[in-house]
Amino acid sequence: MTKDLLARHRAVLPDWLALYYDEPLEITHGEGRHVWDAEGNRYLDFFGGILTTMTAHALPEITKAVSEQAGRVLHSSTLYLNRPMVDLAERIAQLSGIPDARVFFTTSGTEANDTALLLATAYRRSNTVLAMRNSYHGRSFSAVGITGNRGWSPTSLSPLQTLYVHGGVRTRGPYAAFSDAEFIAACVADLTDLLGHTRPPAALIAEPIQGVGGFTSPPDGLYAAFREVLHERGILWIADEVQTGWGRTGENFWGWQAHARSGPPDIVTFAKGIGNGMSIGGVIARAEIMNCLDSNSISTFGGTQITMAAGLANLAYLLDHDLQGNARRVGGLLIERLRGVAAQIPAVREVRGRGLMIGVELTRPGTDEADPEAASAVLEAARDGGLLIGKGGGHNTSALRIAPPLSLTVAEAEEGAAILEDALRSVR
Predict the structure, then answer these.
(1) At 265, is the secondary structure helix, strand, or coil?
(2) Which of 45, 60, 260, 344 has the greatest number of C-beta atoms within 10 Å?
(3) Do 199 and 129 contact (CB within 8 A), yes or no?
């Protein structure tokens, strides 16, 4: 059955549509933190559909909300008043930390970042954008144009002039040997120098923790220091929270809050986890920025009733059950467990991350050279052991990405760590 489906997939879908595993699997159903494939195999899910099944698979509260909304109306577009959309927008605006916030819903993180770029360039009347090296912001033409990761950038053509800033990766690059304070100072000096050589940019867009880049991040406070430089020049700060939002990092509800000394971002984008698998993205911005467009617009599917019902139920469950606190507690235990394993395995260069957003970088032992073959081998071995994880990384894909649903239990964290330890030890 799976081989037949794979043949049909390859016959009708693009060659560049990536599939995991030498023998790709079809996930047929899930429950809690587990999923099953078409062959009946059960897996502990440590990737959640790329950080999207944030709460749990088949969560009854969300299933009930979606079912009840489906029995009323699925969709009407933004041309009509939409109570669930207003309800969710009010909750997100209140949680955002942005004063006088407005919320616009999209269908994905890509579209959210596209919209943020539209707002920033229109507000600032500039098509120059600052982005981070090793970044990823989506699949659209403009989002690819600001992506600083060669593996996910199929063209150099872009409607934007993009300038790349240093600082998203703490342990690689010319400042890696510096202390945190020296690292921040050097990156701020680099940014200040760059701004002296270009036309005034519209915005800096940055992921607080780089997702596709392998869950890398700068020292706390870097973006606060950047914002001081940007604010002096009127340049906006866009925080791409598609992967870091909603408490996944444990310590904060939003990733930008680790860099909050200079205030909140001007624009925040979100997606993935808020819908727990339903297609929700969006943009939060100060009213003066959100309202700067001088022509009409709508969204056909952004904010549609059924996805908003899912988002409301998911957000309520997340807050009521303190899943941010669970991510902090269980994620902290998981990171320490994996660091203990890594100390015994020469191929593991670094275990990094926060909460339930953990990266394990693999290199050829005794070097800093990326080892994508080892990462792929560990991915396969983990699957054989009953664990699904992801991978990513800049320069070459040699970082394992671990991002379970935020309801993960201590027992499940230990089970997953044991499987991953066996997978890491099996690769030579």
Answers:
(1) coil
(2) 45
(3) no
Encoding tokens for residue 192? 């200040």
Quick check: 105 and 85 in contact, CB under 8 A?
yes
pLDDT in tens, 310-336: 999 999 999 999 999 999 999 999 999
Residues whose CB falls within 8 Å of the CB of residue 165, separated by 6 or more in sequence, listed in order: 130, 131, 132, 133, 187, 190, 191, 194, 204, 226
Question: Band of the pLDDT at 19, cuts 50, 70, 90?
Answer: very high
Predicted TM-score of the model (pTM): 0.96
CB 74 within 8 A of CB 301: no
Contact 98, 176 (CB under 8 A): no
pLDDT over 80 at 428, yes or no = no
The mean pLDDT of the chain is 96
Q: At what angle are helices 305-320 and 83-96 packed, to 10 degrees?
A: 40
Instruction: Tell me the residue ranges of DSSP E strands in 140-262.
Output: 161-165, 203-206, 236-240
Helix (H/G/I), strand (E/B), else coil: 227: helix
d(CA 266, CA 43): 40
Place of tokens 């502990």: 44
CB 283 within 8 A of CB 115: yes
Residue 74 near residue 306 (C-beta atoms within 8 A): yes
Among 267, 266, 243, which residue's Cα sits nearest to residue 255?
243
Identify whether the C-beta of residue 198 lies closer than 8 Å to the C-beta of residue 163: yes
